[in-house]
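User: Here's a chain of 197 residues. Predict its fold as tokens.
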Amino acid sequence: MMVPTIRSRPTYPGLRPLVAARCNLFAVEGAGAAAVLRLLAEAPPGFADRTEVVLAAAAPEDEAALRDAGARVHVCVDADAALDTLDLLLSSATMGTRLQVAGGEGFVGRVVRRGIDHCIDPRSVLTEHAGTLARRVQCVHCKTFTEAVTTSLFECPGCGNLLLVRDHFSRRLAAFQGVCVNAEDPAERPHPEEVYR
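Assistant: Prediction complete.
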């Protein structure tokens, strides 16, 4: 029996050196820096001169290596600051700018969403998953977002419901959906499993 494919589930085809682009704009979180460094090492001469990297929560040695490779680097303290910087860069981007993103699932989804907000076709954004499988989850009951969820069940910090993390990914919200698992009997508290490390 074949397991059905979950159509909403994101796929991450990986980063590529788009040599015809006038500007290659990378949004990178944590372990995603290694993917961009690999790409810069394999890219043809002159590619790094047209490369800008918005870097969130990465090691100082990754920042130094990206600068040494010739990329312009914008260092941000966290993902939220990186998204704000990305907004500024996209608001002044010219035709021929290509957006790519590498990092955790929640970060990748949020960057693609920002691209959509700037009229970028989400199918044109190249993505690579790097690092944790932790998910960004929205509670369908109170609409609270929770970052870095690693278990199949967790308590919503907004409404206190015990939520099951579904495999449904909302591209509009850049988050997986969490639904109450014990609505009929709130006293029933199944044990959560660590599944998204």
